[in-house]
Amino acid sequence: MAPFLSKRDLRFQLFEVLDTAALPQRPRFADHSREVYEDVLNLAYNVADKYFASHARESDLNEPHVVDGKVQLLPAVGDAMRAFREAGFFSAHHDEELGGLQLPWVMTQAVQAHFQAANVGSSGYPFLTIGNANLQRVFASPEQQAKYMLPLVEGRWFGTMALSEPHAGSGLADITTTATPKDDGTYSISGSKMWISGGEHELAGNIVHLVLARIKGGAAGVKGISLFLVPRYRINDDGTPGESNNVVLAGLNHKMGYRGTTNTLLNFGEGGESVGELVGEAGQGLRQMFHMMNEARIGVGMGAVMLGYAGYLASLDYARERAQGRAASNKDPLSPAIAIIGHADVKRLLLRQKAFVEGGMALGLYASSLVDDLQTGPEEDRADTSLLLDLLTPIVKSWPSKYSQEALSDAIQVMGGAGYTRDYPVEMYYRDNRLNPIHEGTEGIQGNDLLGRKLTQAGGRGLEVLMSRIEADLQAAEGLDGLDEIRAALKTALEQNQSALKVILGKAVDLGPDLFLANANSALEMLGHTVVGWMWLRQAAAAARALPEAKGDDANFYHGKLQAARFFAIYELPRIEFHAQLLASADATTHEMQETWF
Ligand SMILES: Cc1cc2nc3c(=O)[nH]c(=O)nc-3n(C[C@H](O)[C@H](O)[C@H](O)COP(=O)(O)OP(=O)(O)OC[C@H]3O[C@@H](n4cnc5c(N)ncnc54)[C@H](O)[C@@H]3O)c2cc1C
């Protein structure tokens, strides 16, 4: 079996492209070292391999189902959760006082990457729990943290994010779940929440739902939405789970992929009261959720990368083994067939995957390093870092979601008929990843966010910071061997971006919001490819610097990086021109299409 993750590339990205080994110079990480980070990565690989990869296909074939009102999962999922907890990964990012390792965010993401690649379905439970606890860490009161967050940090209870409703997915402003104030300061929650991942199971002693709801009699629209902690079981005075809180499982959704993560329709307040506690101030629910969006969306982007990456490794392994056909120049029918990796078209499919998944991984880890800079980097840089991270977030979420799907299609193509069967994992990864452009804000919503908000936020400062960082890396790479094509292609891309954005942003008022946003997807494509081109420049520069001293496998690794950077520059970056032109022309084809004409 092919490995689910490239240890070599992960270390290259963390320690040769990013300067993760320098983070222990910051006070919060003073107890860390490169050796500590190596130990953590090795532990993650071993746990992911032994307890997660081992039941990935079994989970895919045996969806969660309900028996006597209880959700049944494979026993292996419970074992995996125990191993994850014993390894200390539920609390890895948290303070030492909470039993955590105070791992930087970039290392937390690198750890999670192992589990996303090994078994994305089972990884859903801990990651939702970690996200829930992180939100509580910022917004919940100390009493609430002791009651609801600590058991999550310890991995004893699990968490969910209960935002969506049957009629309100992208448009969360329209949710109707209500919270009725009670005399004791708590709230009675009632309504239906749709698509709730990890909403019901027996893996943990309790499930803490973070629920968006409207306080009865409060403001209309977004201002009326608040966030509540609603446990599955009410909590006794001694902190143990008590009686049912009437959060009723109305049904399971049967999905195309991510089949190991149970996905539920939950009715709050059915057959009795569901009691919840308000988090922070009333009316701040969506703002609080958005505060956590950058981190959550980086997580989705990284999840997409890792599925694409696992597919790439599987198809690469297959291409080295599978013998078929001969070189076009070889006319001898008696000569042995060659491994398909020898055919230029198969190399094209493999290079395209490599360019997408390694470029996507570089982007996800770079964005994660910005989260660290924001929390522990120099104070004077934090305002710019925050704007850059805001700008990049829709891209970090949606670019890998889309291009890992393309990579996985190429992985199936490399493997021919075998890729289309369940004997190999790539068809499963393909189905799994199809979720990523949908959840945590669809691709359409990310395009609107990028063009409609992020590019103009703070007078366009985020874009200025991005452009100046790309220019600085272009300058730093001047004179390095083998980088001419990528530098030239990236410079052209920057000019195309700048002129297209100047035109479309300048026309925004005249066009009106509807026509202005009609081609928002092209902004996402144009800037997404540019940013990934930049990530390839950074990787190529690190490879070019290391190559003169490298030997054997290392030299091959760096040559591979340079060739994939060249591929991205020649095969992918020129695609930007189409999107730049479409955007600048404010083309109205989709906007003017009438519903009755379909
Ligand atoms: C497997 C799975 C797990 C999930 N887990 C969770 C979870 O744990 N918690 C949770 O709260 N939710 C969860 N979700 C819900 C998920 O976030 C929503 O499915 C998503 O936000 C889209 O909402 P929707 O399905 O209602 O689609 P819709 O909002 O109806 O969108 C349908 C289409 O219309 C487009 N569209 C909608 N509005 C606009 C607009 N203004 N401009 C342009 N295009 C638009 C969308 O881009 C999309 O292409 C999950 C969903 C799935 C499928």
Automatic annotation (TrEMBL):
Q: Which cofactor does it need?
A: FAD
Residues annotated as domain Acetyl-CoA dehydrogenase-like C-terminal: 467-594
Cite the Pfam families for this sequence. Answer: Acyl-CoA_dh_1, Acyl-CoA_dh_C, Acyl-CoA_dh_M, Acyl-CoA_dh_N
On whether Flavoprotein is a keyword of this UniProt record, the answer is: yes
Residue ranges of domain Acyl-CoA dehydrogenase/oxidase N-terminal in the record: 78-155
Query: Which molecular function term from Gene Ontology is one that the record holds?
Result: oxidoreductase activity, acting on the CH-CH group of donors
Domain Acyl-CoA dehydrogenase/oxidase C-terminal as annotated: residue spans: 283-450
**Organism superkingdom:** Bacteria
**Which key words tag this protein in UniProt?**
FAD, Flavoprotein, Oxidoreductase
- Xref: Gene3D superfamilies: Acyl-CoA dehydrogenase/oxidase, N-terminal domain (1.10.540.10), Butyryl-CoA Dehydrogenase, subunit A, domain 2 (2.40.110.10), Butyryl-CoA Dehydrogenase, subunit A, domain 3 (1.20.140.10)
Q: Identify the residues that the record assigns to the Acyl-CoA oxidase/dehydrogenase middle domain, covering every copy.
A: 161-266
What family, per the record? Belongs to the acyl-CoA dehydrogenase family.
**Name of this protein:** Acyl-CoA dehydrogenase
**Organism per entry:** Deinococcus marmoris
